[in-house]
Amino acid sequence: MYPFYRYTKSIVKAISAHKKGDTVDLTDTAKMTFRCSLTDIDNFLEMNNGRVFTLYDLGRTDFAIRSGLGKKLLENRWGLVVAGSTIQYRKRIRAFNLVTIKTRIAAIDERWIYVEQSMWVKGKPCSTALLRTGVTKGGRVIESQKVLDALGKSDWKMPPTGYVAEWIESDADRPWPPQQ
């Protein structure tokens, strides 16, 4: 089940932080912490891989609110969408571990905002994900420049380079739908 209580709690905390001046710029890395609960673990007593993606939602929501994007989403009746992702796991997260999610923008192109997220326990990386995200209006992805303009960052550029550009290129070569 989706963790609605935890999601709501993280939104309230992010709004409170934003009001107190604990904001993030588009170039910053946002951090939030939580405990791995019993509802997050699987039969191997570690955080379920699907739950990792769900909890990354909370990190992106925190980033959006604290960066001011959340307010612009409401004002413009915009939505958010994930259009692709890749993840790597390196270390198990066990029940009751204190987990830090780090969220940052890795790149922006004409249409997509590429977000990099990672989970850390005791200063060690456990997983990292790269997500292709977009802002939508009426169910369609809008140009990234409109989002930047709304945030007062019209001149800000962060084109995809390195592994982000390589992922974009390799993902473009992937057949869709998958060949059976």
From TrEMBL:
Entries under Pfam families matching the protein: 4HBT_2
Signal peptide, first to last residue: none
CDD domains recorded: 4HBT (cd00586)
UniProt-recorded name of the protein: Thioesterase superfamily protein
SUPFAM superfamilies: Thioesterase/thiol ester dehydrase-isomerase
InterPro entries found in the cross-reference section: HotDog_dom_sf, THEM6_lcsJ_thioesterase
